[in-house]
Specification:
The complex is a heterotrimer of chains A (about 280), B (about 290) and C (about 280).
Chain A lengths: L1 H27 L3 H6 L3 E2 L7 E2 L2 H32 L2 H16 L2 H19 L8 H25 L3 H9 L4 H29 L3 H4 L19 H8 L5 H32 L7
Antiparallel strand pairs in A: 1-2
Chain B lengths: L6 H41 L5 H5 L2 E2 L4 E2 L2 H32 L5 H15 L2 H15 L6 H25 L5 H7 L4 H30 L2 H4 L19 H10 L5 H36 L1
Antiparallel strand pairs in B: 1-2
Chain C lengths: L25 E12 L2 E12 L3 E5 L6 H8 L9 E9 L12 H7 E4 L10 H11 L7 H11 L3 H4 L12 H14 L4 E5 L7 H13 L5 E5 L3 H7 L2 E8 L2 E9 H6 L4 H7 L5
Parallel strand pairs in C: 3-7, 3-8, 5-6, 6-7
Antiparallel strand pairs in C: 1-2, 1-4, 8-9
Helix pairs in contact in C: 4-6, 6-7
The chains are: A mainly alpha (about 280), B mainly alpha (about 290), C alpha/beta (about 280).
Chain lengths: ~280, ~290, ~280
């Protein structure tokens, strides 16, 4: 039993170890300097191979933040509506729907984005390729919407009833109660949900690889095609060799670092907010 | 006494906010519902015409542009079997150790929990990288169903550990002294009392894990590969359904129609599996409420 | 604690011209009040006049509907799903509390409530006043004065005036309860309802809060639910005893506190007040 637990708990170390070993040639060869400063990524070029991850990092962050920026207002409004305005039956069915929506495969979202969102964007902005930063953000935002809605709803539900009673006892209306009492009390939980969504979004591959256009460049507008880190790994690992491959492992390490930081931040916040209750 | 300035007017401004909360919230709820409906409608519209028994069983032809998804479905199932074959014992064992053997809050227990939580945060594409070099190269499995399944097992492991652990922790505390009082050893207690009692929770965890494994793509591209032949052994490369969709959408010109049919099949599978998980957990919670 | 001794029928500081005998003007007139929760009758057919400017104590064992009664006085029963209130409640100015179209928010400003557990908003002390005062139409400039007035009234000003911007929940239990009382007072209510305001506090803080409630007598009408009979004896002008009859809470005895406590007519009330039952 202890051995199984050791395997399960140590798995993540094994993964990081393997990533490091495979990334090591690149780190040792001192290629990381160019990795973080060079804006060009042309691993296939015979004459001038360049390995700069900056454009892809930018794309990853931009897509992720835009997705959250799109999903947060909708998700939060949805959660407030469910908690304080909708009849319980509606709330229950909508929650079931969202729980199912969380399970929809990323590749299905990505494919739907390719078939529906991309043509729509081409019609909205003629002359652009459609597959773009904006398309990626929309599809990814749609994908994390249920996460944000459900975590926000849980955060709103966790506001102590005594607070609502206090507000009611003081003759406060629903809107002011939500605005001045509930949201300040729930903002920690909502923030944790956003962090979870960020972690999910930045590591997402399938939803972005199909709709972002996959051109490694720093976008100048929302309609420019971009290529996030995850897409790069998915697209190039199949044929990469030698230092190119090692650099893709470096990119994987960066991803793990980002999500690990987010998860660490979440558990730190949780430990900070309720020191009494361990786990649960 | 200070003057009270037009309470009705002040209230009115917030009544306006109240109304906009209601309208904006309602619209947001409608949008999220509408998006879901839109997604389903499009997939049904695009994919439904080709769905038939023939489609589900026939071989993949012309790089997926025609034929069916028979071998792909078989590979998906085999990958799933490999995945569960490793993940269930490993996840249950880890959860049992955390719940029954390790002391709460002790350093080893916290390290294991922390490791599992961290594992949950690793992006699926990174699992793909890891599976490719660890299972594929170090363990010499190459591009194979086994390699893909084991990679997925690592990925769904945290989910299994968490659901099993919470099922074990939710058991009545007096079950253990009661069993000990009957002179049962700890291992008999676990096998005969605790595991059966926690079974519903484990089943829910496994169901959720199946859903997650079925929907995974990125971790499988470099581990189980793209082969569309009928798999004969577990060491053959085999293409999962999600990889099939990805490949048709990205690499095959005019692959769209078949991709949408495959996506519809996958979506239907996932919805069935996840509804089962939701229904199971609701039933189980209800039962627990009634008995306690 | 400078509470009056039990033998003294009326507190010493009764304002002239307001005899505590029950014929003072009624501030709240309750007629045939029945409260049901999804078919279960929590409170049946209560009729009572609550006199203006005095303290009315509601006593009785747990689960006899005292809190339901209190909460129906400012429509907090609206918050409970499935709760149905019949009968009528009128304020002295003729406002019908129970009217379906009554302005509930304004009403709750006029009939304030303080709960058993102090429930300040987990924000700064100042925000705890700003939020409800803004709701009730006070302009931003008037709020600091109002806050100072009521904080002085509850004896908290000297303790908190230099930390108004700090979180309210850092205060001690007794201070928190006084803060909640001040917050309710800030809205200038005509009536203030206390739902066991001292039972979550330690004896010392409890005494301070009790003295504070007593000091409010004459300024506004007070209705207090308490499990502490000694406390009810010390501060109440009027008393009402609640009891469970036929599975529903009802009022078995009410009148001037002195009479109710010394010679209750109802046998159950008698046993309860003498400490033999309940």
């Amino acid at each position: 039993m202890g051995l199984l637990a050791l395997v399960a708990g140590g798995m993540v170390l094994l993964i990081i170890g393997y990533l490091l070993t495979n990334a090591w040639p690149a780190i040792q060869a001192g290629r990381l300097g160019g990795f973080f400063t060079d804006t060009k990524w042309q691993p296939g070029s015979q004459r001038d191979p360049r390995f700069g991850v900056v454009s892809m990092l930018t794309a990853s962050f931009l897509v992720t933040f835009l997705a959250v920026a799109l999903a947060l207002p909708v998700g939060l409004a949805c959660a407030i509506f469910h908690r304080f305005y909708a009849p319980p039956v509606l709330e229950r069915w909508n929650r079931r729907m969202l729980e199912l929506l969380i399970g929809v495969p990323a590749v299905v979202f990505g494919f739907w984005g390719l078939m529906v969102v991309v043509p729509l964007l081409i019609r909205l902005a003629p002359g652009t390729p459609g597959q773009s930063l904006l398309a990626g953000s929309i599809v990814l935002g749609f994908m994390i919407l249920p996460i944000i809605t459900l975590t926000s709803q849980a955060a709103l539900q966790a506001v102590p009833a005594a607070q609502l009673q206090a507000a009611a006892g003081l003759g406060m209306g629903r809107a002011r109660t939500i605005w001045c009492v509930v949201l300040p009390a729930a903002k920690g939980g909502i923030g944790t949900g956003v962090l979870l969504a960020l972690a999910r979004a930045i590591g997402e591959t399938m939803a972005v690889v199909l709709v972002c256009g996959n051109i490694p460049q720093i976008p100048k507008s929302l309609f420019d095609p971009v290529r996030p880190i995850t897409s790069t790994i998915a697209l190039e690992m199949g044929y990469a060799t030698a230092s190119h491959k090692a650099l893709l492992f470096c990119a994987g390490l960066i991803l793990v670092l980002c999500t690990a930081l987010l998860v660490g931040w979440i558990s730190f916040r949780r430990a900070d907010s309720d020191p009494g209750t361990g786990g649960a | 006494m200070p003057s009270v300035s037009k309470p009705a007017a002040r209230r009115a401004s917030f009544r306006w906010l109240d109304r906009s909360f209601a309208v904006a919230g309602g619209m947001a709820a409608l949008v999220s519902f509408g998006l879901f409906a839109w997604l389903i409608r499009d997939l049904v519209r695009l994919g439904m015409p080709r769905i038939s028994w023939e489609f589900l069983t026939a071989e993949v032809a012309d790089a997926g542009r025609s034929g069916g998804i028979g071998p792909v479905l078989v590979s998906s199932v085999l990958i799933l079997v490999c995945c569960l074959g490793l993940a269930i014992p490993l996840g249950t064992g880890c959860a049992l150790w955390l719940a029954e053997y390790a002391r709460r809050g002790s350093v080893p227990a916290r390290l294991v929990t922390g490791g599992v939580d961290l594992l949950a945060s690793v992006p699926s594409i990174v699992f793909g990288l890891f599976g490719m070099v660890f299972f594929g190269q170090t363990l010499r499995m190459g591009f194979s169903i086994l390699s893909g399944g084991l990679t997925l097992a690592c990925m769904i492991l945290p989910m299994l550990v968490r659901t099993t652990l919470s099922a074990l922790e939710a058991l009545p505390a007096d079950l253990r002294p009661a069993a000990a009082g009957l002179g049962m050893t700890r291992s008999t207690t676990i096998a005969k009392v605790l595991l059966p009692a926690a079974l519903p929770g484990i089943v829910i965890g496994v169901t959720l894990g199946i859903g997650r494994a079925l929907s995974e793509t990125a971790a499988l591209i470099f581990t189980s590969g793209y082969s569309t032949r009928w798999p004969e052994t577990l060491s053959d490369s085999g293409r999962a359904l999600s990889v099939h969709i990805y490949d048709l959408a990205l690499n095959v010109a005019n692959g769209g129609p078949m991709a949408s049919s495959s996506a519809l099949v996958l979506l239907a599978l996932i919805l069935v599996v996840n509804s089962a998980a939701v229904t199971l957990s609701e039933r189980w919670l209800l039962k627990r409420h009634q008995t306690s | 604690m400078n509470a009056p001794s039990i033998s003294l029928p009326f507190p010493a500081d009764v304002p002239a011209g307001s005899p505590a005998t029950g014929d003072a003007t009624a501030c709240l007139r309750v007629t045939g009040l029945t409260v049901q929760y999804r078919g279960f009758t929590a409170l049946r057919d209560i009729t009572i006049d609550i006199p203006e400017g005095e303290i009315t104590a509601l006593v009785g064992p747990s689960g006899c509907g005292k809190s339901s009664f209190l909460h129906s006085l400012n429509r907090l029963t609206d918050l409970v799903p499935g709760c149905r209130v019949t009968g009528s409640i009128h304020l002295a100015d003729g406002t019908e509390v129970t009217h379906p179209k009554a302005d509930v928010l304004t009403l709750r400003g006029r009939v304030g409530i303080v709960f058993q557990r102090p429930n300040p908003f987990p924000q700064s002390i100042r925000r705890n006043f700003e939020i409800p005062l803004r709701e009730h139409g006070w302009s931003k400039e008037d709020i600091p004065d109002r806050m100072e007035t009521v904080l002085r009234q509850v004896g908290l000003w000297n303790e908190v005036h230099d930390r108004l911007h700090k979180s309210a929940i850092a205060l001690s239990g007794g201070q928190l309860q006084r803060l909640c009382i001040a917050r309710a007072l800030a809205l200038e209510p005509a009536v203030i309802l206390f739902d066991e305001p001292c039972s979550a506090l330690d004896p010392l803080a409890s005494g301070v809060v009790e003295d504070l409630i007593h000091s409010l007598r004459g300024q506004l009408t007070i209705v207090i639910v308490t499990h502490n009979l000694a406390q009810a004896r010390r501060i109440a002008d009027h008393a009402a005893v609640f009891w469970v009859r036929d599975g529903a809470g009802t009022m078995v005895e009410h009148g001037p506190a002195a009479r109710v406590f010394s010679s209750p007519a109802d046998p159950d009330a008698g046993l309860y007040l003498s400490g033999a039952r309940g």
